[in-house]
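Ticket #4471: structure export looks truncated?
Reporter: QA, pipeline team
Priority: medium

Steps to reproduce: submit the single chain below to the structure queue and open the exported record.
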Amino acid sequence: MRVRLAALAAVALVAAPSALAGPPPVAAHAYVVENAATGEVLAARAPAERLPMASITKLMTVLVTLEHEPLTHVVTVAPGAASVGESSIHLQAGERLTVRDLLEAALIQSANDAADALAYDVGHGDVGAFVALMNARARRLGLRDTHFVRPDGLDAPGHYSSARDLTLLARVVMHQAAVRRIVRQRTATIVGGRVLHTWNDLLGTFPGLFGVKTGHTAAAGWCEVGAVRARGFSIYATVLGSPTRAQRNADLAALLRWSLSRYRIVALVERARVYARVGVGYGRAPLALVPDRPLVRAVRVDRPLTQRVVAETAVRLPVRKGQVLGEVRAFEGRRLLGARALVAARSVGPPGVVGRIRWYAGRTVHHFVGFFS
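Actual output as written to the record:
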């Protein structure tokens, strides 16, 4: 059978001027914005610069803990954890809480004592051993510009990360169902009647935001990793070193809004559209080929879309409705976005004896007339 490769016209998208503009001005010292599904960086400033990251550190503390202890494991609070300063839930030495409770305290209220309690427990009383696990995990993740000294994120010499590394870390930690559930909560109540309140001001106010972690120290400034879900894709943005809490919120919201504007939901393959026609012989009308199902994707508004069809030019009969006879592929530039099978829109059976005779007779007359004309 002969095969045809046909390139169809590019799909036209009308982009709003704001979508084609560059990223918004922000006051943060460093930032990264990326598509979580593809890892594509949409915008960045100083993405690999090594900076203090405050309580965003706790994402690694939580990841290491979950890889060593179940949520139901009971932790006895070590004296060293109970005495840590700044943000805390006022744990007492000897108090017993589950890993789940301590994770909620560390992630929602950014409690340093909760993070340290987890570190002492997993490290069997040795915080240094736990920090070594944090750094080993960072190396396995490929976090080239990250080094941990503390599990809580308080300022310490040699404790740093980068906007790029923290964005990757957040995406990895969010693979944990428990983390996804916790970080989208604005409040929670844990053992002892302790009521937790988030430091994430955009939760519940920025549409689609579902995490991830804030941080603040004198050296780090105001920091946050935010994640927002839209139809068909998610965006992660990290800002480090904003001068104030309000500016951090404004920086992050501006970057997320701009990033969302870079995408549109497009029907790349439409269900009822005829993408090719194939010959069936015997003087019959060509057979229409339609997709077996539609293809809808979130695509960049500033990149051309093309469709390519591979289909048979002629088929042997009989053909049944739904029989695969080709394929349509959708591309964004050179990147394949998806493909759908092209199937026969109707069944076509072979002609009967009378039909064949009529067709051959017609062809004979046609050639005869052509010979004398």
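Status: closed, not a bug. The export was complete when the record was re-opened. Leaving a note from the reviewer for reference: The first helix runs from residue 17 to 20.
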